[in-house]
Amino acid sequence: MEKPELSDCICKMKQVLKGDLAREELSDWAGGYVYADDPEIEDERVWNLLILLSGFDLKDSPETYLHDKEELKDWIEEYWNGPIDEVRKCSNERFD
């Protein structure tokens, strides 16, 4: 499994905001790294963001999620320090 970069995380988050990716898919993707036996994520910002994203599908009641899409936008602003247009276009092959 290829190590994700910050731009990969941001790209996945943008896909959720646009409705192209389900929050459960985002959580599963991030969880694949977070719950790995020996995760080799050296970038602390990427690691912290993956931890957040791995719980993005948690519910606080049967009908509502603990985190809403506004929080996802806030996380993008907090973690991405460059122009949002510079985030590379997501490709399904990149994340399989």
What does this structure look like?
With 96 residues, this protein is an all-alpha fold. It has one domain (6-95). It contains five helices and no strands. It is globular, with a radius of gyration of 13 Å. The relative contact order is 0.22. The model is unreliable at 91-96 (pLDDT under 50). This is DNA-binding protein. GO terms for molecular function: DNA binding.
Low-confidence stretches: 91-96
Count the domains.
1
Please identify the structural class as seen in this structure.
Answer: mainly alpha
- The average pLDDT is 84
* Cα end-to-end separation: 8 Å
> What fraction strand?
under 5%
Q: Could you give the order of the helices and strands?
A: HHHHH
Q: What is the alpha-carbon Rg in Å?
A: 13 Å
- Supply the number of helical segments: 5
Morphology call: globular
Helix content: 40-55%
> How would you sum up the major sheet?
none
The count of DSSP E runs of length 2 or more, i.e. the number of strands, is 0
